Amino acid sequence: MVRGDRPSPEELAAAEGATIPDVLSPGMRVLFCGINPGLWSGATGHHFARPGNRFWPALHSSGFTPRLLRPDEQDELAEYGLGITNLVARASARAAELTDEELREGGRALERTVQRYRPAWVAVVGITAYRTAFGVRAATVGSQQRSIGDARVWVLPNPSGLNAHWTAATLAEEFARLRRAVEAHDG
């Protein structure tokens, strides 16, 4: 799909169950872990691709990237020590379509990814998915007590435009809190 093209309804329907490649490199500062790709991401092959998703603006506004990246520029994240994966690889119209077992298996898969790539931090994007994947019912947004391997864990709000509990500004501030913690840890 050419940059700027919008997937057709047929392409979106065909993206159900599609997978997209992770953006990973050894020794990342932060590995962002989404819940699962939406249909727009499945159709385009890019993470957080649906217009209205606030991941890329929050990443930039928080200071993680010097400019606003487009989803089709996701491979540039490695230049900033960042990466992206998902708890569940298959694309769906809504995260609510995932089973608890899929999320728990996704947590185990994330642990294996962290072992292999050794990021300093893992930022799970979605509190409910994190709680289910790791069995931590009382988890709140922010720094977590648990680690994954040697990686510190932070939970961020879901940047989907459907998550009305978080504005673009409060979402960016939460991403900035993580960035400040990462920088303090890099020290």
Characterise the protein shown here:
The chain is α/β, with parallel strands linked by helices and 187 residues long. The protein has a single domain (19-186), classed as Uracil-DNA Glycosylase, subunit E (3-Layer(aba) Sandwich). The protein has 6 helices and 5 strands. The chain has a 5-stranded mixed beta sheet with strand order 2-1-3-5-4.
How many domains, as an integer? 1
How many β-strand stretches?
A: 5
- Amino-to-carboxy terminus distance: 41 Å
Helix count from the secondary structure assignment? 6
Order of helices and strands: HEHHEHEHEEH
CATH class type: Alpha Beta
Strand content: 5-15%
Keywords: DNA damage, DNA repair, Glycosidase, Hydrolase
Pfam family, one: UDG
Organism: Saccharopolyspora rosea
GO molecular function, one term: hydrolase activity, acting on glycosyl bonds
Give a short summary of the structure.
Helix content is 34%, strand content 15%. It is an alpha/beta fold and 187 residues long.
What distinguishing features does this structure have?
glycosidase, 6 helices, 5 strands, single chain, Uracil-DNA_glycosylase-like, Uracil-DNA Glycosylase, subunit E, 5-stranded mixed sheet, 34% helix, MUG/TDG, G/U mismatch-specific DNA glycosylase, 187 residues, DNA damage, alpha/beta
Q: Layout of SSEs?
A:
Elements: H1 9-14, E1 30-34, H2 39-44, H3 55-61, E2 82-86, H4 100-117, E3 121-125, H5 127-134, E4 142-148, E5 151-156, H6 168-186
Parallel strand pairs: 1-2, 1-3, 3-5
Antiparallel strand pairs: 4-5
Helix pairs in contact: 3-6, 4-5
GO molecular function, one term: hydrolase activity, acting on glycosyl bonds
InterPro entries: MUG/TDG, Uracil-DNA_glycosylase-like, Uracil-DNA_glycosylase-like_sf
Domain Uracil-DNA glycosylase-like: 21-182
